[in-house]
UniProtKB/TrEMBL annotation:
GO terms for molecular function: transferase activity. Gene3D superfamilies: 3.40.630.30. The keyword Transferase applies. It comes from Nocardioides oleivorans. Residues 160-301 form the BioF2-like acetyltransferase domain. Keywords: Transferase. Signal peptide: none annotated. This is GNAT family N-acetyltransferase. InterPro entries: Acyl_CoA_acyltransferase, BioF2-like_GNAT_dom.
Length: 344
């Protein structure tokens, strides 16, 4: 079995594979480091066979304190993929079952107890029965707006309420711009934080100004920012859109509540769709909701009723027996939560 190669951010090999696999923003050598905390380490797992190559960025984290964890011998970590769509990123048609087997071998050697990967949309994950310690799970459904249609076809493919809202925003003389620089980070963060606060969003969705400044400084060419302004020039809706060679991703943003009657976010997404299609991309990933079929999901689906796709995760354990012993010590944890020892 071919062992994976481990690269660090800034290595020429990681950058080469990032370009070869389509310059996905979540695979960018600088992306994962934006959220790395004390004692955490960013690695790029690289692997190849006769069929192609694989890149999987991972964040290695010290294990938390908890029942049974202090009894493990040696220094252990666990691994998680980037926030968003974390891979594996491929060229050609590599054997992903062999890749995950090699990855688990490396995890055993390096005392990486578990790994959780938020899989890229459309990647052909192996079935669960290919090896122990590997499980592919359906997390939720996402919406991807197809950009292959002609402009009028895209417009007619929207749900009727989207077309009505875009026209409403235009009647309010809202102006929208999609650009490839960040502009005023503080203004963006103000709208974004206001939205997170209004929704009572989980702490994992809160990012500070330094995070967005890092994206501005390190990911140039891998993002757009879309702003909608009212007649006074105030930003009333904004969105950070990450992009690859083929897709763009609705990432983070927000809308002022007092602007809701003008429907600025419908206009914003319509503008991003047109901009992305004009840039030669094939899909605009809107994501899903907080819960299956909730209002946020239905809002996104209205932009492409045929664009619902499955979003999967991959659970990896380097020692199934060890993990099951630890999980048994937390019988209160929802079995869908992985790894169980990190449950609050």
């Amino acid at each position: 079995m071919t062992a994976p190669r481990i690269e660090v951010p800034g290595s020429a090999e990681w950058h080469r594979l990032w370009e070869a696999t389509g310059r996905e923003p979540f695979a960018h050598p600088s992306y994962l480091g934006l959220t790395a905390g004390p004692g955490e380490r960013v690695v790029g797992v690289c692997w190849s066979d006769a069929g192609g190559e694989v890149l999987l960025p991972l964040l290695l984290r010290p294990l938390p304190s908890g029942p049974g964890l202090q009894d493990l011998e040696g220094d252990w970590t666990d691994a998680v993929s980037p926030y968003g769509y974390g891979g594996p990123f491929v060229t050609g048609e590599p054997d992903l079952a062999a890749f995950f087997a090699a990855l688990r071998g490396w995890m055993r050697d390096e005392h990486v107890l578990t790994g959780f990967v938020r899989a890229s949309l459309g990647v052909r994950l192996p079935p669960d029965d290919v090896a122990g310690g590997y499980e592919a799970v359906h997390l939720t459904d996402n919406v991807v707006v197809s950009l292959d249609r002609e402009p009028e076809d895209r417009w007619q493919h929207y749900d009727r309420k989207v077309r009505k809202n875009v026209n409403k925003a235009r009647r309010h003389d809202l102006r929208v711009e999609v650009r490839d620089d960040f502009g005023d980070v503080a203004e963006f963060v103000s709208v974004y934080h206001g939205t997170m606060d209004r929704r009572g969003a989980d702490g994992r969705y809160w990012f500070d100004a330094a995070y967005f400044e890092g994206i501005r400084d390190r990911l140039a060419g891998s993002y757009w920012v879309a702003d909608v302004r009212d007649l006074e020039g105030r930003v009333v809706s904004t969105e950070l859109v990450l992009r690859s060679d083929t897709r763009c991703y609705s990432f983070l943003g927000g809308t002022h509540a007092d602007a809701f009657p003008m429907a600025p976010n419908d206009l914003l997404k319509h503008a991003v769709i047109d901009h992305a299609a004009g840039s030669g991309l094939t899909g605009y990933v809107l994501g899903g909701g907080y819960q299956p079929g909730d209002g946020i999901f239905r809002y996104k689906r209205a932009f492409d009723p045929d664009g619902v796709v499955a979003f999967h995760g991959v659970r990896l354990t380097s020692s199934t027996d060890t993990y099951e012993r630890l999980r048994a010590l937390r019988p209160d944890v929802d079995p869908r939560f992985f790894p169980a020892y990190r449950s609050p």
